[in-house]
């Protein structure tokens, strides 16, 4: 019973951390990555689809991304979706591919990225604290229901703290 609680707590905490790391990848840093387009979706035959599912996305250099859609009729949709996403670059549609030129980051943009990153980290910390509290509450309930002893409960709560 306690092992299940430990495993579930550890899984939830790892999930919170991996979610935070995924969010970090969407932030723009000095060198551009294709992950800035992860949240950009287009309507592809009635389904909201991410850009990497409808074409190839390549990083041409430190400030340029090239999108080659597999279907040329999607160029306009991709163009408008990128414009609406407000990722800091204007799409350049040449009829065959879309090029995104990202300007160098300003000091303000870097500070904003740091602020967003701190917020994401704080959200992850709160999620981990909630996971720990939820697990400790389960252990206390088991103790209250006399399914574990007080010593086992205290030891289990200390182990949950170590996992954190």
Percent of residues in helices comes to 40-55%
Distance between the termini: 19 Å
Order of helices and strands: HEEEEHEEHH
Q: Mean pLDDT, rounded to whole units?
A: 90
**In percent terms, what proportion of residues is strand?**
15-25%
Low-confidence stretches: none
- CATH topology title of the largest domain: Topoisomerase I, Chain A, domain 4
CATH architectural name of the largest domain: Orthogonal Bundle
Number of strands: 6
Oligomer: single chain
Report the top-level CATH class of the largest domain. Mainly Alpha
Strand order of the largest sheet: 3-4-6-5
Number of domains: 2
CATH superfamily of the largest domain: Ribosome-recycling factor
Count of helices? 4
Structural class: alpha+beta
Radius of gyration: 23 Å
How does the overall form come out from the CA principal axes? elongated
Give structural notes.
The protein has 4 helices and 6 strands, in the order H-E-E-E-E-H-E-E-H-H. The chain is α+β, with helices and mostly antiparallel strands. The chain starts with a helix and ends with a helix. The model has no long low-confidence stretch (mean pLDDT 90).
Task: List its traits.
single chain; 164 residues; alpha+beta; Topoisomerase I, Chain A, domain 4; Gyrase A, domain 2; 2 domains; four-stranded antiparallel beta sheet; two-stranded antiparallel ribbon; 4 helices; 54% helix; 18% strand; elongated
């Amino acid at each position: 019973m306690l092992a299940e609680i430990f495993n579930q707590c550890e899984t939830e905490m790892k999930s919170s951390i991996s979610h935070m790391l995924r969010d970090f990848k969407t932030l723009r840093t000095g060198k551009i990555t294709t992950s800035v387009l992860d949240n950009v979706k287009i309507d592809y035959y009635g389904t909201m689809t991410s850009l990497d599912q409808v074409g190839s996305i390549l990083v041409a250099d430190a400030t340029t991304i090239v999108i080659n859609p597999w279907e040329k009729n999607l160029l306009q949709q991709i163009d408008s979706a990128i414009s609406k996403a407000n990722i800091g670059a204007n799409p350049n549609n040449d009829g065959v591919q879309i090029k995104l030129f990202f300007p160098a980051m300003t000091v303000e943009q870097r500070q904003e990225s740091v602020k967003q990153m701190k917020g994401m980290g704080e959200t992850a910390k709160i999620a981990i604290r909630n996971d720990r509290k939820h697990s400790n509450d389960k252990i206390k309930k088991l103790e209250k229901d006399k399914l574990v002893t007080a010593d086992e409960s205290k030891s289990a709560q200390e182990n949950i703290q170590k996992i954190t």
